[in-house]
Each structure stands twice: as structure tokens, then as C-alpha cells.
Amino acid sequence: xxxxxxxxxxxxxxxxxxxxxxxxxxxxxxxxxxxxxxxxxxxxxxxxxxxxxxxxxxxxxxxxxxxxxxxxxxxxxxxxxxxxxxxxxxxxxxxxxxxxxxxxxxxxxxxxxxxxxxxxxxxxxxxxxxxxxxxxxxxxxxxxxxxxxxxxxxxxxxxxxxxxxxxxxxxxxxxxxxxxxxxxxxxxxxxxxxxxxxxxxxxxxxxxxxxxxxxxxxxxxxxxxxxxxxxxxxxxxxxxxxxxxxxxxxxxxxxxxxxxxxxxxxxxxxxxxxxxxxxxxxxxxxxxxxxxxxxxxxxxxxxxxxxxxxxxxxxxxxxxxxxxxxxxxxxxxxxxxxxxxxxxxxxxxxxxxxxxxxxxxxxxxxxxxxxxxxxxxxxxxxxxxxxxxxxxxxxxxxxxxxxxxxxxxxxxxxxxxxxxxxxxxxxxxxxxxxxxxxxxxxxxxxxxxxxxxxxxxxxxxxxxxxxxxxxxxxxxxxxxxxxxxxxxxxxxxxxxxxxxxxx
Amino acid sequence: xxxxxxxxxxxxxxxxxxxxxxxxxxxxxxxxxxxxxxxxxxxxxxxxxxxxxxxxxxxxxxxxxxxxxxxxxxxxxxxxxxxxxxxxxxxxxxxxxxxxxxxxxxxxxxxxxxxxxxxxxxxxxxxxxxxxxxxxxxxxxxxxxxxxxxxxxxxxxxxxxxxxxxxxxxxxxxxxxxxxxxxxxxxxxxxxxxxxxxxxxxxxxxxxxxxxxxxxxxxxxxxxxxxxxxxxxxxxxxxxxxxxxxxxxxxxxxxxxxxxxxxxxxxxxxxxxxxxxxxxxxxxxxxxxxxxxxxxxxxxxxxxxxxxxxxxxxxxxxxxxxxxxxxxxxxxxx
Lengths: 503, 334
Fold this sequence. Notes:
The complex is a heterodimer of chains A (503) and B (334).
Chain A: H1 2-12, H2 15-33, H3 39-50, H4 55-80, H5 89-100, H6 104-139, H7 142-153, H8 155-159, H9 164-178, E1 181-182, E2 189-190, H10 204-222, H11 237-248, H12 250-265, H13 271-285, H14 297-321, H15 327-338, H16 347-350, H17 352-380, H18 388-405, H19 410-428, H20 433-460, H21 463-468, H22 471-502
Chain B: H1 2-23, E1 47-51, H2 58-73, E2 79-83, H3 90-98, E3 105-111, H4 113-120, E4 130-146, H5 154-163, E5 169-173, H6 178-190, E6 195-199, H7 202-210, E7 216-220, H8 221-224, E8 231-236, E9 261-269, H9 274-289, H10 291-299, E10 304-308, H11 309-329
């Protein structure tokens, strides 16, 4: 194995491969940062190009694009409150408040270092523990998925502290919206009102762009501020943030990496779920949990570390079992198959050079990402020095193009504008866009797995055994209950404390 | 030296992709008509290829292999790929159905998708909207269990299911899909009564089978090949054995008349000039007879099987009648 790793290191530093890594990373970061262009699209677009290369170079480039795009999504999340990819939704929760406080540099560097750390962690697990971890993907059935998503939804309780009712209403609206379209069990259309374009459901990305970015533009246009946020470039932020993260956020980063890797391994759950759960966990474990949502680097760190950790995770079942852990992993598998390489445990012996070179190159990519990213940040952060009217126009243009680009459809642009207005005016009456986004993202997965579990319950003859007897399910149920109870418990304790003070 | 060539190929490849995109914009072309296109004067501009699934997916890879040979036989004009995805392909199929019937929009279609989507889900096209050019892929469906399963033949599965109604957990991908049709066929022909568990895609279905959540699944060759080391393939629903799985018996040879598969082909809108349709049919036949093309398809794991446009047309309509009968019998459509 060490011999193969050495070959991998050599392959990674061949001039062509190294160049492809740099190009892939820069391209990936740009694709990720533009709302509407996702990691999936970026990798898919480049697959035909890899047909002309040798498989190792091709894979190295695809891996670099994947890593770059998942990280890149945080740039727009932090700077203009628009998650560039759905994986970065949770990054907006603290990233955008940080920017508003004039701490954009810190937020951007946190997400960069967090991403690289998570990416390295996930890849190391892939390198050394692929076989044992692969079996985890198989232990996770429909009931486990159902509880995992319920656990994810419980984040709403923590997110909307002080106004849980409005948070729950927002989340429920999101879930309701996610039921538009063909239902997963019977394959029949619902809530389409005879309008065929709705049969495919509400596309998540345009809805996110609307809720976060378009609604923000309406607010910006209405405000009298000359700039979106104060921004003065600071020197040496990267090193300062690095120091702070490794001093204060060690636990946070390791925990988020573990969550990210495990969620990544599961087929059907990716960065968007990992980042939400990590954010919630980081908040629950933190001493100053009330500060989350006001712009703390811990929040950005949790979300961004987790979503890059999913990359290594999602490749584990793909390489070992031929079961891709994410949409991007599926496309990379397509590229492997097109080269005539069959995934499976044998890939580590039959095509060992290829497999290990790919994995080792991902380690190099993540280190390289810190260097390239810290240069790019200097440029992207300048966005904040552009006067609000120009930025407003640019965001609107990007929102429209991004929504349209998903599947070349005007429907998605209308969806985006609708959710923009909904998010803006809903926000005024206290609806929470974050909770609604969680509902829209997690709703379909909850429903799909609830349906499957009910089918299984038919065969087992008992709903109870299916939902409440698997150990992983029980663990997730306990976590969910704790997650819901913690804010309530804290509120009561605070009330008691204040009552004691007033006496 | 070898490294240098690799770099060259990479550059050449990128240049090829770029030039294809660029020539897509060229308008004035000095046309050198081949024999077949002498009177026809087609194509005089790039031809749109509508793919109803994502770039890099199996449909896309197949069409890209085909493109290589289109360029060989019709060098004057390239294909421009357009990905219109969503609703299990229905959006892209509809686009191909309603495009200008000028021969400059070819669509990739899948059967039984184009049969079932209008029939059961209100998709906005019909199988009569198309002129069929050719079938290029036939991906048969199989019945698969885990390697350590107690079932050793499809008959074991049926017997168990008949003896224990609703106890057998059987996984399929999607409702009103090829898998769903095969399941209904099985239930219809054998009287088995499994509990159907519907998955979103082959990835989570494979994981569910290997993890023991379901006992048996219906899969396509393309999908089961990825995890074939951990599975036992009981039977294949095809007329003859597959070269990918030569040891797996067909249902037919073991006593059950069941053929169920997913086929891919190409179409143009119905009202397209018959001369153009004929030109396309001839060209696609040439491509499918090309030994290099067949080798490329095999390498990419694509179960290549050519059928002429006329036969494909008849096949689709026969599938339509069969599906209507089956779905009505199971009260899934009115």
C-alpha cells in the first residue's frame, strides 16, 4: 500500500497533473461561488474532456473541481448571503452576519481553512478506512435515513430560538412546498393544479437563490447604505484565523469532519445535510451558543468543514461498492466506467495505481486549495467595495442566470422570483428563511424514506419494529429529542436565573 | 516521450471539444454533399441533440460515442448537445416531440419511459409525436439477490413469495418505470405477491439490497454490473443471454415467457420530411454497423443492440398496448 501511495505522490506532482489540479481548483471555486452553478454541473461538464486524457489525470482534475466547487459555494454565502451550492446554506447563518460586522476576511478564511481541514480528514478516512466504513453505507436503511432527516429538521428548534412557533411554521411551509410534484411512492402528480411544469416539483436551487439572495437584494435596494458592508482588507488574516481555529475550534473541526464524512458515505445524503447537522451540533456543544447566528467563526467553521468532509466520504462507497455517495461521485463513477474501469474492492488491487493516485491527489488538492484560495479571497472580497446599486444589479443578473441554468427553464426563474418576494415579505412578519430552506431540502428525503419504511413495515407486519428497533435509529431518535429539548431547557434555566436576579 | 504524447492527446482532446463548440456558431459552410444527401441538401447547419438526462450520465455517454461516428459519416455538420432534464426524462422527451420538424432537432428517448409517462403521469407528448430513427441500446432487466441469499433461482423467489404473501421485500427504482412494469409482469404471470419498495435510483437500491433491507431487486445490467461481486443474478429478462453475464440464464430458457428491458433510441418530430428521416435512418444504421463503434460501446459497458426505425416504431407501439393492458389490469390507470 505504501508503495502505491508513493506512486500517487509522484503522479500528483507530474507537471501535467499538477497543472490540472490548479486549473480544476480555480475553475471549481468559480463554479461553486456562482449561485446556480453547482459542483455537480461543474464536474459533469468536464467529464467529456477527460475522455481524451489518461484516466489518472482525468480523475485528478475531476477531484480538484469537486473540492473547489464545494469550498467555492461559501464565498457567495459569506459575501452576498447567497449559498453558491446547496451545501453552503448553513454557512450563511453566521457567514453573512460576520460580513455585516465587517469581518468578511475572517469569515472567508475560516471557510477556506475549515474546508481544507474537512477535505483532508475525509480523504484520510477514504485512504485508510475505506473498507470498514463502506459497510456503514449498507447499514443505513430507509428508517435510519428518515430519522437522520428528522434530526436535521430539529435544527429548526435551535435556529429559531425565542420564536420556535414561527420557525416551525416556516419549516412546515418548506416541507409542504417540497411535496409539489410526482409523489415518490405512487408516481402520481400532486399540487400541480393541472400545470405540467410543476410535475417535476420545485427545484431546490432556484428556491434557495430566491429565499437567500433575491430577497436580500430587495432589502439592499431599500436600504440607504452605500455599500453592502464595511470592508477594509486586513493583513495576515489567514494566519490569524488559522491560529484561532486550531486554538479554539479543534473539537468543532474534528466533530464536523466526522459528521461530514459519515453523512457523505450515505448515498442520498450530501453536503447540504452534513453542514446543517454540524452547524446544529457545533451550536449545541458550544459554551456561547447564544452567539450563533450573530456572526461567529465557529458557525462558519462547522458548516464548511463538514461539507468538504463529505467529498472523501462520498467516494468511499463509490470506489469500494460501486454505490456513489453523492451526485458528483456518481458522475465520477460514470467517468471511471467510460474508461472501462469497474469500481469495487478490486479497484484497490487491479487498478491500484489509479485508485491511490486519485486519493493521494485529493490530499494534495486540499493543501493546494489553501494557497490558491487565500489569493482568490483577496479578489473576491473586493465585491464589498462595489457600491450597493451595482452589486444589486449583479446579484439580480446572477440569480436569474443561475436559476435558468439549472435546466434551461423559465419556470425556475419564476420560482426564484416568487421565493425572493416570499422570503422578503415573509421575513417582515417573522418567517424564517433558514427554516424554510431546511424544509425544502430535507422534505423530499423525509417523505421518500417514510414511504419506503412504511412499505417495509407492511412486509414486517409491524411499524414499531421498522422505526424503533434498529440501534442507529434509536441513537438518532435520542439525539433528536436532546436537540429539541436543549433550547427549551436553556430558556427555562435562563428565565429562572433572571427571576432569581429580579428578586 | 510517452508522457509527451499523453499531453498532446489531452490538448488535442480539449481542442476538439472547443472546435466542436465553435463550429456550432459557424453559419456559412461550403457544403460537400455525400451521395445520400445529394438531392436532400441536409444538414446545412448544426443538428441539436436533445438528451433528457444529465451530462455525463449513461444516455449522454452513449450519444457522445455515437457523435464520434456521426462526424465520420456526416462530416459536414456537427451535433450540438442540449441537456433538458427533469421528471424522469419527460421534459426532454416532450422537447423532442414539439421541436420544429425540420430535422435539426434529434431527441434521445427511452422505452418504456416514453410509453408510461404520457399514459400514467400526464406527460405532454405521445408516442405518435415521433418519427423513429433507430434503437441503439437494449439494457435488459434482471432479478438479483445478495450473494449469501437463500434463493438460488427465480423459482425459489416466486415460491417463497406465493407461500408468504406480502413478506418478500422487492426493490424497484421508480414507479411507472421499466422495473415497475417487470414487477407487474412477474405478478401477472406467476401470481407472486411481494411488497414493493420503491427507490429513487440504482445507487440506493443497490445499497439496500447489499445491506439486507430488501430481499430481492429488479435491476438493469448496467447497474448490477457495478456491484456484481456481492450479488447473485438469478435470471435475465431477455431473449438471449447477455455477453456481460454469460452464466445467467434467461427467464425464457427456464420456463417463463418474460422479456423486460430499457431501450434507448433516437427520434425526430413526426412531421419531419420523410427524406430527412430516411437519411437519418441510413446514417444511424451505418454507425451501428461500424465495428469500431461496437467496440467503443462494449468498452463503455453499453449493451448495444440495433433495431431499425421502422421496427423500433412497431416495438414502441406494441409496448404501449402491453403496458395499457397491464396497468388497467392492476387498476393503476383508468
